[in-house]
Amino acid sequence: MGDDSLRWDTETVCGECGSATAACGTELPGEMRERLLAEHGATELRLGSSVDRRAVMRVLRRSLGLGLGEARAVLDRGYGGTLPEVELLARRLRVVGVGAVAVAGAGR
Length: 108
Fold this sequence. Notes:
alpha+beta, elongated
C-alpha cells in the first residue's frame, strides 16, 4: 500500500527447471484475491458509533466505484475484503474524519 493505492506482486520459481516468473499490477486478479481470502479470512470494516453517513457514502462511492444505492447498501450491511483493501478504505475514511478500523479475521 503506497500513494493511496494498492499494488500486488508475485514471483515463482520452478523446482524442476529453475525457471522464474514475476508479475505485478494494481488490480488484484480474482483468483489471487480469492486465495488470499481463503488463506487469511476476510477483514471487516468497522465504523465508529457516530459517523457522518454522507462522508462515508462519498468515500465508498469514490473508492469502490459504486452508485448511490450500492454505496448505501454497503453502508447498511458492512464491507469486507482482503486486509489491504479494507485498511486502505479505513485510511481514506479517517482522512475525512470518520472513525474506521480494519478488523482482520472477522469473516472467519
